[in-house]
Amino acid sequence: MKYSIIVPVFNRPDEVDELLESLTHQTEKDFEVVIVEDGSQTPCEEVCKRYENLMDIHYYYKENSGPGQSRNYGAERAKGEYLLILDSDVVLPEGYLKAVSDELSREPADAFGGPDKAHSSFTDTQKAISYSMTSFFTTGGIRGGKKKMDKFYPRSFNMGIRRDVYLKLNGFSNMRFGEDIDFSIRIFKAGCRCRLFPEAWVWHKRRTDFRKFWRQVYNSGIARINLYKKYPESLKLVHLLPMVFTVGVTGTLLLLFFGFLPYMLGTVHVFPTLGNAMAALGCIGLLGIIFYIIALFIDSSRENHSVKIGVLSIRAAFTQLMGYGCGFLSAWWKRCLLGQSEFSAYNKTFYK
After folding, report:
1. Which residue, among 316, 312, 131, has the nearest Cα to 211 in the 3D structure?
2. Containing domain of residue 275, as a range?
3. CA–CA distance, 205 with 158 (Å, rounded to integer)
4. Most exposed residue of 63, 84, 208, 330, measured as fewest CB within 10 angstroms of its CB?
């Protein structure tokens, strides 16, 4: 068997149904599906049973241990030459497996990954979040783009790896967030060939509202510090940009507040030079923010053919950058300055 598709699931039976439905339309049929239920209260076993006559599918239920360990559980039971790791909230175009096979035939790879897109059926909020996660104006377009600012590190929503390499590297670590980047780092350290397969893309739903999106990117910021503690060389300049953005926006608001406060209180004569300088710097920062907002709006509206999504993309971009930046700063304080454990920064965000 060529491919084993491994999907960890936690309380998402409807999404699993959509993913399995998309797998029935694949032009390449040499695959099995391994669904690993990670201690869900709303299991998807009945959904999986409906597809037993349509594909080679295996369903397993285990106690909750996080997505990384659930993928390892599935890998131990998989039979394919290549393991394809997917999130339960993706949908595959019918040519997905063929695109993977074409790339492997063109040039062998030990590990690989593909980009993601927003489907036309997604909500406007999901499309805005998808834009913010892939746009040049937020991530530099490096998440699944053809032009990379660094090596391509496959992410677990769309990742492939030879089964023997996966088992040799002991799969995913016990990190509860950032475990896919940790695995990708170890893949490179082992000297494996890792490539982007640009045509092996998936539709990825991501989060359905901004509160959940904030929590996701906040945890990603924390994970980046945890990865830095394990692999100091993994921290690049691009990873600092959301933190710089967060500090810049916060600093601009503080400068505007304290710069104009004396005018509002009628005490500008006390420290006139300092007040004017703070107000001037705040106005410069605000002008930069306004230009950034306009660029986001125009680019997203053009790309999504929707003014509404253009507006939502502004909120999505600020949520992404400032959520990540706040998580990064929180973890830096707790881990690098206070010397706390890896999981300390997640107490109020991940383990609810």
Report:
1. 316
2. 234-346
3. 12
4. 63
